[in-house]
């Protein structure tokens, strides 16, 4: 019932600075449940009516508190994925649901927390000077971040970002995160606040989503500088639940299908937490529909099979390396990890104003590099289909250049495959 929780971005610090530990948060289940109905249940409404009546009857019988047991909080009603619902139910109701012939599976809902701390100004400045020294020679984007340089070169320390200018045109990155500050200069009007689980509150209050979105498609910090960025807000401040994340994924899934964006869309999920069969199920299903799900490996230094979405079939799961191409010590790992990308001291857009820039560390920062590269593969190389895009990314990746203990993960660094690199 009490599950170990996750975090998107860990603490940021220069490698020489005193290393504060990444906050590890333990949280209780919030008393909620996620209920998945069998595909054979044709009349969703009548099941919901039945579920509501069971809940009502059991509350009355035991004189239970409606604030603790709120009943169905929201439903999942996609044509493309499972039908079901999330809510808070008393033990008798839970038991009746389990025994219902309509119910395929149930899981306890969990609270999630993102821990993000920006690199303090002083440390960020120090690093800046070093970067400027390194980036004197210019070819394409001369002042690119070390992350962009690393995904376009076969050796660490490359001095520019080599990329195709049209990368990302007519594509969509669904950023399942804390929201996006769409007015930030990095986005040039290409970002949209499309969906939120919090009424009409789309605001990114912690900067995690804005930072990741700009790494995918920002004009300076982005991998694919023409893509559209679709904000799907599933975190308010730093917290959310499994059921809410699944709701955001379900919305994005349906939106991609409804707008004929299969073949030109990715789901970028810089998040990780307790293993969730329901989350894995919907992502596997999305991948089967040709939607590309990309996920952070997580920052718990454990096997990716222990968490979600990192363990979902069909997902491209991304670990993190630093600028020396050494594996990030907190990065999750495993045989099924897909590849690594830059994730330590990554500079990108901040959320406090339209020009702010911050550095963050974590596999959360590695994931958007690969989400951008998936869109790059679709637009520059004409690759479509989840398996094909994944194969293409693995084929283009730089092999055997990561230092450190990979714990059985493949030694591959994401790369855009440009022909000019050495
Ligand atoms: C989450 O945000 C709250 C409120 O801003 C803060 O008190 C708490 O320390 C944060 N937790 C983590 C893990 O960052
Ligand atoms: C790169 O240079 C351009 C033009 O000088 C500037 O607008 C931009 O902010 C710089 N980008 C980075 C990542 O420093
Ligand atoms: C890797 O993924 C496959 C397919 O999803 C699964 O069967 C296998 O158990 C996974 N291996 C590990 C080590 O998690
Ligand atoms: C924007 O925010 C940054 C901190 O990220 C700050 O240093 C800068 O002064 C702010 N700029 C404006 C115009 O408020």
Low-pLDDT sequence parts:
1-28, 125-139
- Rg, Cα atoms, Å: 21 Å
Q: In angstroms, what separates the terminal alpha carbons?
A: 51 Å
Morphology: elongated
Order of helices and strands: EEHEEHEHHEEHEEHEEHEEEEEEHHEE
Task: Characterize the largest beta sheet: strand count, sense, and whether it forms a barrel.
Answer: 7 strands, parallel
Describe the structure using short key phrases.
single chain, 422 residues, alpha/beta, seven-stranded parallel β-sheet, six-stranded antiparallel β-sheet, 23% strand, disordered N terminus, binds 2-acetamido-2-deoxy-beta-D-glucopyranose
Plain-language structure description:
The protein has 9 helices and 19 strands. It starts with a strand and ends in a 9-residue tail after the last strand. Helix 5 packs parallel to helix 8 (363-380). The model is unreliable at 1-28 and 125-139 (pLDDT under 50). The longest helix is centred in the N-terminal third of the chain and has 19 residues, at 44-62. Strands 7-8-6-10-12-14-15 form a 7-stranded parallel β-sheet, with helices on both faces. Strands 1, 2, 3, 4, 5 and 9 form a 6-stranded antiparallel β-sheet that branches. The chain has a two-stranded antiparallel ribbon with strand order 11-13. By secondary structure, the chain is of the alpha/beta class. One 2-acetamido-2-deoxy-beta-D-glucopyranose binds at residues 350, 352-353, 355-356, 358. Residues 175-398 form the Peptidase S8/S53 domain. Residues 1-19 form the signal peptide. One of its GO terms (molecular function) is serine-type endopeptidase activity. Belongs to the peptidase S8 family. Pfam families: Inhibitor_I9, Peptidase_S8.
């Amino acid at each position: 019932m009490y599950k170990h929780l996750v975090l998107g971005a860990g603490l940021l610090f220069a490698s020489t600075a005193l290393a504060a530990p990444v906050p590890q948060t333990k949280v209780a289940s919030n008393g909620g449940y996620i209920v998945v109905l069998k595909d054979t249940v044709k009349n969703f409404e009548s099941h919901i009516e039945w579920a509501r009546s069971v809940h009502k009857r059991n509350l009355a019988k035991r004189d239970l508190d409606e604030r603790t047991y709120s009943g169905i909080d929201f439903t999942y009603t996609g044509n493309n994925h499972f039908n079901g619902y999330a809510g808070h139910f008393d033990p008798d109701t839970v038991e009746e649901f389990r025994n219902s012939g309509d119910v395929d599976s149930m899981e306890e809902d969990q609270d999630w927390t993102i821990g993000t701390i920006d690199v303090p100004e002083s440390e960020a400045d120090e690093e800046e000077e070093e970067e400027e020294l390194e980036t004197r020679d210019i070819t394409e984007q001369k002042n690119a971040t070390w992350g962009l340089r690393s995904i376009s070169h076969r050796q660490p320390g490359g001095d520019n970002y080599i990329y195709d200018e049209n990368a990302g045109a007519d594509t969509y990155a669904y950023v399942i995160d804390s929201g996006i500050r769409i007015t930030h200069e990095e986005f040039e009007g290409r970002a949209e606040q499309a969906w939120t689980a919090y009424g009409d509150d789309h605001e990114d209050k912690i900067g995690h989503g804005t930072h990741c979105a700009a790494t995918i498609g920002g004009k300076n910090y982005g991998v694919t500088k023409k893509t559209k960025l679709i904000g799907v807000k599933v975190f308010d401040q730093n917290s959310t639940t499994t059921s809410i994340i699944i709701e955001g994924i379900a919305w994005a899934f349906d939106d991609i299908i409804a707008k004929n964006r299969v073949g030109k869309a990715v789901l970028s999920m810089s998040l990780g937490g307790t293993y969730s069969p329901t989350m894995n199920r919907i992502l596997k299903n999305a991948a089967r529909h040709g939607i590309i799900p990309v996920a952070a490996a997580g920052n718990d230094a454990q096997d990716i099979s222990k968490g979600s979405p990192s363990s979902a079939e069909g997902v491209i799961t991304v670990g993190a390396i630093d600028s020396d191409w050494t594996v990030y010590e907190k990065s999750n790992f495993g045989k099924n990890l897909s590849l690594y990308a830059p994730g330590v001291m990554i500079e990108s857009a901040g959320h406090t104003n339209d020009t702010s820039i911050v550095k963050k560390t974590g596999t959360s920062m590695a994931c958007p590099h690969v989400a951008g590269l998936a869109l790059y593969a679709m637009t520059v190389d004409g690759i479509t289909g989840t398996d094909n895009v994944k194969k293409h990314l693995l084929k283009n990746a730089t092999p055997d250049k990561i230092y450190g203990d990979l714990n059985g993960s493949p030694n591959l660094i994401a790369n855009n495959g440009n022909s000019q690199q050495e």
